[in-house]
Every structure is written in C-alpha cells, then in structure tokens.
Design goal:
This protein has 509 residues and is α+β, with helices and mostly antiparallel strands. The chain has helices at 19-29, 40-49, 83-86, 118-132, 156-164, 171-178, 240-256, 281-288, 292-305, 346-352, 381-389, 404-420, 480-489; strands spanning 9-13, 55-59, 62-72, 101-109, 137-143, 182-188, 200-207, 224-234, 261-263, 309-311, 315-319, 322-330, 336-340, 363-365, 368-372, 394-398, 424-428, 430-433, 442-443, 448-450, 462-465, 472-479. Strand 15 (368-372), helix 11 (381-389) and strand 16 (394-398) form a beta-alpha-beta unit. The model has no long low-confidence stretch (mean pLDDT 93).
Length: 509
C-alpha cells in the first residue's frame, strides 16, 4: 500500500464486532496454511478472559493486522511445549491472570499492508502492556517458514545461528530479533501442519527490564536518587567538636534538600593535624587517626537524625599498628560499613608509611547498589569493572588533590569509569590551603557528577559540576531507570559487548 494514500493508523482493542473482518484478514495472511483462523467462539472466549491482550491495527478504519496474547506462569515455558498445549487445546484455559509471562499466541499483518512496519507497532504495544502489568517477559513460539529450504542440511539450531550471523536471510526471524527478542530454545512439533517450518519453532523472549518481583518490603528501592556532594573548605579548627559542627551543618543542609547521600572528601579532617605539626609527618597522621572513631560515631548519628546516607570521605586509621586510609558508609538505618583505599599513592607510602588496603566490595543501600573508591583507586579501571560486575549503579569517589594536574587525573578517570561501566560517578574534593599542616599545604578540587554518554544523558557526560576551588555543596538527581535502559538499548553496550573469550577481569583469591 502506498504511504501517500494513508490518512489514519491506529491501534485499538479487538471487539467481537470485528470478527467477520478479522477472519478474512487471518485467511489472507495465512494463505499457505488453509483454515488457519480462529472461530468466533474462540475469539469471544479470549476477549472474555483477557481483553487488554487482544488488539488490532487499523489503517483508515480497516483491519491491517492483529496481535493476540494470554498470560501464563513461567513454569509453562520452562519446558518444551506445543502450540496446542500452551493455548489449552485452543480454549485458552491456560490463561492465568496471576501469571508472570505475556505469551503471544498470534500476530500478523495482511499482505497488502506489509512493508509499513506495522508489526513493530504491535510488538511495541505488547512491550508497553508487559511493563504496565509488571510481567517478567514476553514469550512466543516463532515460526521459521524458510527453514524447509535448509532442513536437509542444517539442524534448526544451526539454521538459527546462520540467520543471526546474517549468512541466511530469514525476514520473519530477523524481524523478531531486531525487535529485541532472543531465542531460548527450539521447539519440535510446535505447530501442527506448519510444513514450511517443518513444525519447528523458536521460543523467543523479550525481557521486561522494569520487572519487579513481588516483595513484602514496605519501602521499594528508590529509582531517582538525589546526590549531595560536599566541596569542603580546609580551614583551622580548634578541636574535633568544631570540625564536627561544620560537618553537621553540611549534612543538615543536604538533608533539607532531601538528599539521599552526603559525600565528604578524602582526608577532610586533615586540619586537625595542625596541633601536631611539631611532630614528624608519620607521627602527626597517626595522631589524626585517633579522631576517626569519634567522627564515625557522630556521622552515624547524623545519618539517622537527618535521614541521609553519609559517605565519610576518608580518614587515617591504625589497625594492629599499621596505618590505613579508610572511610565509612553510615546508612540512615543505623548500619555502618567500612571501605579502604586499595592503591596508596607513592607520596602516602613514602611520607606517612600508609599501607594498601585489600578489601573491595559493593554496598547495598535503600537507593540500590553503590561502590566507593578513594581518590587514586579510580585511576585503576579494573576496580570499577569488578564493582560493575557486582551490580553497581553509582560510584562515589572522595578525593584530595593538591594541583590541577592531579585533579585532572581523577576527573578524567572518573569520567571514563562512568562510560565503561554504564554507571553514575560522583566525585567530591577539598579546597583551600592548610599552611600549618605538613604535606597538606594546598588543595584543588571541583566536585562533579558524571554519567554515561548516550542520548538519555548529557552529551558531554557531565550531569553537574561545582565551582572550582570554592566551598559549596553540589546537589544532583540521577535516574537509575536510565541506566537500566542503557544496559539493554544503548547506542553501545560496554558491559554486554565485552569479549570475555579474549580477556577477563577477575578478583585474586
């Protein structure tokens, strides 16, 4: 049909009043399979059981195509079955309103309307319905009507692989694959009388990436998460209580904006070393480590009081006589978890005797899975990749850099981690000067939130950025559903397209 002749295309629910026209459309569409149409009683039965699953596409008021479906339990598709079995001997008694799979039982476009991509619209309706009903996936047995040409030389599995690799052109199967359906298994004897397919079918599935398994939890994981970054000014403090007063001020402010996280920089408590400047640098930082327990205790109290998850940046901590660079995740439910810097800089090792950490882990929060890497760690892509494999959605990077070139290393590496791991990355640093603290004289920072670079995100991958070298807070909302879509439908798929047959990143034992 000529595009210029079309005045109106619409998808509408099938009505029993459409039956006579529907029957003629089915006969016209399945000319190679005589009597391949549903009788009026069957259609009426289907409409009674599941009206939302039955739609027709009309061109200028005439039926051009149709999609019929039922809902079944996932155990129905976990084993081999025939078309007759899945439809309950064509009675649709297999339909289960409480099932979790949308099963496509028929879809067709009349010959004169083919080439207008109307079938895609019917598939899109099914996908929207699947998401709306919170069903796990769409499944159907796809015919392979060109298989009979190759049946003597190829098994169905070999045929499918050659179609997928473009060695064989099968417009039916190609269309289904191009609509994001993937093969699950081959079904033998699926549709009785389907000689063109040698009675084989490919069980195809489209996964609903928004599916949420029914839960008894009263609070669901947040999908839009508000990040609060503290760009901390280094200034003299008389004691730890004065430093905590300033920290609480920022927590209170971020909480007032209903932030879900507060991120502090690396070594934000360094000003407390000023009173130990007469000591050697290794001794001074060990004195600073004495405040860590008190700071963590208060941060946990703030997290509960202000209903916000706090990432404490990092602080020195002495364990069994050894000095480490560590931080704490203080959740708003009162729980606390520790993280440590895996890679210490040459300066940290040389001047302070800082030891390397060994534990890398993901953290579960009420806003999904997060990762935390301290400063230099973000310059090692393997760490971010391991966290991404564990399901990380947001990577937090507390940092401390003294010069712009040091900051550029952190910034550019953090930006790369967002792209290659398809996640958000938030970095927060300190600004200003500490003339009375050895090895901590100057700081340069610009706190930022990075995203992947794709259509749903900022073109340059920068969601938000603070004013450089100025004390302030940065607040930014990130949508986790955009990451879910990116994983499945992105222009590129950095995580899925990895060649694990060539290389692999894995943890040491």
């Amino acid at each position: 049909m000529n595009h210029d002749e079309i005045e109106n295309i619409e998808i509408t629910f099938l009505s029993i009043d459409d039956y006579a026209e529907l029957k003629n459309a089915m006969i016209s569409s399945y000319q190679s399979m005589p009597d391949a149409y549903w009788d009026k009683g069957q259609i009426n039965n289907l409409l009674q059981k599941f009206p939302d699953g039955q739609v027709v596409i009309k061109v200028d008021g005439k039926i051009a195509g149709c999609a019929l479906s039922i809902i079944v339990n996932s155990d129905k598709i976990s084993r081999a079955h025939t078309y007759k079995e899945i439809t309950g001997n064509y009675t649709f008694s297999s339909h289960s309103p409480n099932g979790d799979i949308l099963y496509g039982i028929d879809i067709f476009i009349k010959p004169e309307f083919r080439g207008l991509r109307l079938g895609r619209r019917l598939y899109d309706y099914r996908k929207e319905l699947c998401e709306k009903l919170n069903l796990q996936s769409i499944v159907f047995g796809g015919r392979i009507p060109f298989y009979h040409k190759y049946a003597n030389e190829l098994s169905p599995k070999q045929y499918i692989e050659k179609v997928r690799s473009k060695e064989i052109d099968d417009p039916v199967l190609n269309f289904q694959l191009s609509n994001d359906f993937h093969p699950i298994r081959v079904l033998k004897g699926y549709l009785e009388g389907d000689k063109a397919s040698s009675e084989y079918a490919v069980l195809l599935e489209w996964d609903n990436i928004y599916y949420e398994k029914p839960s008894t939890q009263t609070v669901a994981t947040k999908r839009v998460v508000r990040l609060g970054l503290v760009q901390w000014q280094m200034r003299p403090y008389q004691d730890v209580s004065q430093l905590l007063q300033q920290a609480e001020y920022f927590v209170d402010t971020l909480s007032g904006y209903r932030s879900d996280f507060a991120l502090f920089p690396e070594f934000f408590n360094a000003p407390l070393m000023a009173k130990y400047n007469h000591l050697s640098e290794p001794d001074a930082i060990r004195k600073l480590a004495e405040f860590t327990e008190e700071i963590v205790k208060n941060f946990s109290r703030y997290a509960i009081s202000y209903n916000i998850n706090i990432i404490s940046g990092s602080m020195p901590e002495v364990v069994d006589g050894k000095l480490f660079n560590v931080g704490y995740l203080c959740r708003r439910d009162g729980s606390i978890e520790r993280y440590e810097k895996i890679h210490v800089t040459p300066d940290e090792a040389k001047v302070w005797g800082m030891q390397v950490g060994k534990e890398l882990k993901i953290f579960d929060t009420d806003c999904g899975k997060i990762g935390i890497l301290i400063c230099y760690d973000v310059e090692f892509p393997e760490l971010g990749r391991l966290l991404a494999d564990d399901g990380m959605n947001i990577l937090f990077v507390p940092f401390l850099t003294d010069t712009q070139n040091g900051f550029s290393r952190v910034k550019n590496c953090a930006k790369a981690r967002a792209i290659e791991n398809e996640c958000y990355v938030a970095i927060a640093g300190s600004v200003g000067n500490l003339p009375n603290v050895h090895n901590m004289d100057i700081q340069y920072a610009q706190s930022m939130v990075f995203t992947p670079c794709d259509f749903a995100f900022p073109m340059d991958g920068v969601k938000a950025e603070a004013t450089p070298n100025t004390e302030m807070i940065l607040i930014s909302d990130v949508d986790l559903d955009l990451l879910t879509e990116l994983h499945e439908f992105g222009s590129v798929k950095n995580l899925k397209d990895r060649r694990k047959d060539v290389y692999e990143v894995k943890r040491s034992n």
